[in-house]
């Protein structure tokens, strides 16, 4: 079935079923990807997966029905299921903030198109990076590389007249150097991500050798002594912190029907110090989290969440915006056609501050400088893992430490941010964000260096 | 080309080749903040090719509508870059091997009965926990996986299964308390009541918050939390990690690695657990594999590839089909993945274990467990739900707590005792007792 036939079927289904629902949307999606994994000399995985699928979402008096399918000839049959599901849960009324219907086409806008780089050249780049890592020392016993590029075409039509076609690229890569000595294994990662430029992948090469050296240093480094410290986090970890600790709590669909949670997150409440600003934006071109239109056809924007320490906004889809009486923010995103759009982050940022790095650490008698991230989880209680740490002693960076894990409570930790650096940095990598089964969704984090008092640091 | 013709074409190919077909149909009822929210119906289908071409391996996953010809071309093209052929595909007699597994509890489950369960959960738990907000979902899935090879293998596995979870939330100023329980299985009446009682007990105990000074404490470990710790062991027993020299267990076959009271079996044939997988996804027929026998390391887990590289017999743990309730398609190549892990019981009761704790911690769920040296057994995790135990009884929930240690030492000289009870976990892929572990670092 060609794209014209599919378009015609989508129109037919929309015309037939839209009158039966308060709201109906149909999505068609095709993807074609390239992905590979290398481990030392071996190309352990190489795939060019492709997929085509559809989803239909209907809302009737507040009840939702969602279907996804791979067979276009069954669109009508599944539309019936979506309508039936929505009708079976119909309650009082449908909550959807009004938006202007959008008719638009969003083509790719690429700097260096990865399709213009041959597979051989891509593999050679990774072989070269792996060789670089291994050449640092015989103790580097494994260097692995991973790469993906995914081209996605989306067509979104709604019963309100929105008809958007979007072409997207998602690009990411990582190189991990690993070494072990006397039963201790350590690793360090070099990562990159973009939605428009293969050059960022090439840019990883210069960072592999330092990562391999750091891996060896960590083998000899002590584990950080567990306790509570003043911690300075680098932009990567600052971004991870704001994503995990605060960003997830800003996703309004998690609590739009929960009166107590709404009370806790009342706009105007103080969440942090006066210097703290946090926003989430879809407007940074080139980042994996940039969103021209979200998956409900709402334009992406820059959404302030915290200004001068005060809660001023949250991340909405159309339903949560209506339930709060606020404006949609373009944060309705789905992992792919197999899932309904829900409130998700884009590029979540701690805004630029004024402090120089030396001033951030200058008055710390005993603290930890936590650098890079190896992941984390969020919510009211958050936890994330630094790539490595450096002890701060008497205002100066001292010895390297490993196993630096930061955890805490959102509310107290936000208030414990007492200084923000003047070195705002966008940090894109190949990872993704998870919410329920929808993992990994492409997002970006950005931050300057940030100082946080009284942080629980795991270790020995 | 119709699917039947594509299957025939694979059977007749001269080069070693496999065609994988996966078709699933999922129905979900989700609820949020004490009200039913949505109904979801999903067709999840896909197919994939793996072949040996020019003594190298090529793979190509695609959608069910992707023409076989294109997948074969892609796989042959990629084989030029692929890794060398290290193994031969198993041979079969061309006859269809078929297994149908329908959990009796989901035999007649429809969207309507799934909805009934969701409404019942909301009603029964809602009356017991009126101040709490309840969210969650009920899922039922049907799956048909098929593997056809040019070497005479034709395996078809048809499965129907279900699952559910409930998240109870009690938001308070500065403390958003969440309790999650569930099963990757559809509950019968007894299990429904057990899950409700478990949820209510946890919620009630968790309403009181207490402190715990940093230090070393006896840790009573629920199998649910133990499941999070097992990442360290599952990485270390993977044939791939052993082959690449990354596993600390690579030279320890036959050697004691943990307490002699522990025996651990990977059992793909236990129908009561969610890891049930009677076909090995590579045309093999898996059997239970004893990983650890009375504390001694017995075996690693392998697929065809790493079994050949290590010179070990393969254990049938090559995995390419996702779980029945998963939304992704089949993969072309086979990774190594365990099925259900079964650990023998201990000889004491949970009640006696708890009664013997003067001041300690009962850990029921961990958020994440991580360390830079996870494969070496070092673990550190923040807790999702943990209670302080004072003089044998729970004395409140501990917030913001981290547990750290080394898994092999925790299951070795720090292990005090294990329970006779082996309760179900949310993922339902582990059958293990409660464990009492001494001198665990809590921060």
Beta-sheet strand percentage of chain A?
35-45%
How many distinct beta strands of chain A?
Answer: 25
Secondary structural class of chain B: alpha+beta
Instruction: Tell me about the largest β-sheet of chain B.
Output: 7 strands, mixed
Biggest chain pair interface: A-B, 80 and 69 residues
Low-confidence stretches of chain A: none
Radius of gyration of chain A: 24 Å
The rounded distance between the terminal residues' Cα atoms of chain B is 62 Å
Number of helices of chain B: 10
Please describe the topology of this protein.
The complex is a heterodimer of chains A (460) and B (443).
Chain A (H helix, E strand, L loop, with lengths): L2 H15 L5 E17 L2 E6 L2 E11 L2 E7 L5 H14 L14 E4 L12 H17 L4 E19 L4 E19 L2 E11 L4 H4 L2 H16 L6 E7 L1 H13 L11 H6 L13 E4 L20 E6 L2 E2 L6 H7 L7 E2 L8 E2 L3 E4 L6 H6 L3 E12 L3 E13 L2 E6 L3 E5 H6 L1 E4 L4 E3 L5 E3 L2 E4 L2 E4 L2 E9 L2
Parallel strand pairs in A: 5-7, 9-16, 15-24
Antiparallel strand pairs in A: 1-2, 1-3, 1-6, 3-4, 6-7, 7-8, 9-25, 10-11, 10-15, 11-12, 13-14, 16-17, 17-18, 17-19, 19-25, 20-25, 21-24, 22-23
Helix pairs in contact in A: 1-2, 3-5
Chain B lengths: L2 H9 L5 E16 L2 E19 L2 E7 L5 H12 L17 E6 L8 H18 L4 E17 L4 E19 L2 E9 L5 H18 L2 E2 L4 E7 L1 H7 L1 H6 L2 H5 L20 E3 L22 E5 L2 E2 L6 H7 L7 E2 L15 E2 L4 E3 L6 H6 L3 E12 L7 E13 L2 E6 L3 E5 H4 L4 E4 L11 E2 L3 E8 L1
Parallel strand pairs in B: 4-6, 8-18, 9-16, 15-21
Antiparallel strand pairs in B: 1-2, 1-5, 2-3, 5-6, 6-7, 9-22, 10-11, 10-15, 11-12, 13-14, 16-17, 17-18, 17-19, 19-22, 20-22
